[in-house]
Design goal:
The longest helix has 17 residues. It is built from 2 helices and 4 strands. The chain is 43% helix and 23% strand. It has 70 residues and is of the alpha+beta class.
Length: 70
């Protein structure tokens, strides 16, 4: 499940093991996120962000989701 409010987004996973794998993988690729309640990854970009940086963040998340075997 994905929830968005303003610039903040949360991606909730079915279990904490999967959330932790994605959290670690995004961190290894330089994306700063927060693991919340063990099953949700919170993404909070800065208020001022260039389009290229947003695209890079989305690409990192997409690549990480595709690389993890579910």
């Amino acid at each position: 499940e994905i929830r968005i409010k303003g610039l903040m987004a949360g991606i909730e996973f079915k279990n904490s093991e999967l959330a932790l794998k994605i959290y670690k993988e995004t961190s290894n690729h330089g994306l700063v996120t927060t693991l919340v309640k063990g099953t949700t990854i919170r993404i909070t970009p800065p208020l001022i962000i260039k389009s290229e940086k947003k695209k890079k963040g989305v690409r990192i998340i997409s690549d990480c989701l595709n690389s993890i075997k579910i």
